[in-house]
Specification:
disordered N terminus, 4% strand, mainly alpha, 11 helices, two-stranded antiparallel sheet
Length: 228
């Protein structure tokens, strides 16, 4: 059976070429893409065609245009972009429920599979959490806490779980900030000492209980703040 030849518009062709530059790593996340004039010259297209393709890529979340600053790569795959967009449209309560599911599975797997190197990484970020707590530095605490959770997920040695977690990491970080009130560092779970200890002992039941405890606390604070 003869297949119908697919004919793409010029905008679609430019869209595909720009997307290829992003997905193959030529243009990395956070980087500013080349100037309009350079892209128009390289692709041999008009400004309108280029802008239409960029608008389409920005719409799905691969690119982000900042007024007066240029256009930047936001994501390196359509799936990641769509996932992050969906999470941004979710309530804080929904994000915490997803966090509970991902964190719980991650700590159970980490308890079973963690290596000594994984444990060292967790303890490194746990220590940074405690340092930020002593300094009462919210920004540094959230940064260290996020890195600690990512280290735990990496210790699960499940690449799919890691990809899913990394894709919503920004929103998870926001949920940490928004559920910590003024001083998250005052929480008994600051730095997750008991959680890391449970993973070190390979006590997956205790590790799972620790996750349930801090997520329950975050949900209570979110409900108190009206973040439904």
């Amino acid at each position: 059976m003869v297949e119908k030849i697919e004919r793409k518009s010029l905008v679609e062709q430019v869209y595909d070429q720009i997307k290829a530059e992003i997905t193959n790593g030529t243009w990395k996340i956070g980087e500013k893409i080349p100037k309009e004039a350079d892209l128009m010259s390289n692709f041999g297209i008009s400004r309108n065609t280029l802008r239409e393709a960029i608008r389409a890529l920005a719409h799905i979340g691969l690119l982000e245009t900042k007024q007066g600053d240029g256009t930047f790569v936001r994501n390196n795959s359509e799936l990641n972009a769509i996932m992050q967009k969906r999470v941004r449209e979710s309530s804080n309560q929904e994000i915490l429920e997803i966090r509970h599911a991902l964190d719980r599975e991650a700590v159970i797997l980490a308890s079973e599979r963690r290596t000594n190197e994984d444990l060292e990484s967790m303890k490194k970020y746990m220590k940074l959490c405690h340092i930020a707590k002593e300094k009462r530095d919210l920004k540094e605490f959230v940064k260290a806490d996020t890195a600690l959770h990512l280290a735990i997920v990496k210790a699960s040695h499940n690449d799919l779980l890691l990809d899913m977690y990394a894709n919503i990491l920004e929103e998870i970080q926001f949920s940490i900030t928004s559920t910590t009130e003024i001083n998250p560092v005052e929480s008994t779970h600051s730095g997750h000492t008991a959680l890391v200890s449970a993973i070190e002992k390979r006590d997956k039941e205790q590790a799972a209980r620790e996750v349930t405890e801090y997520i329950t606390l975050f949900k209570r604070i979110a409900a108190k703040n009206g973040d439904n």
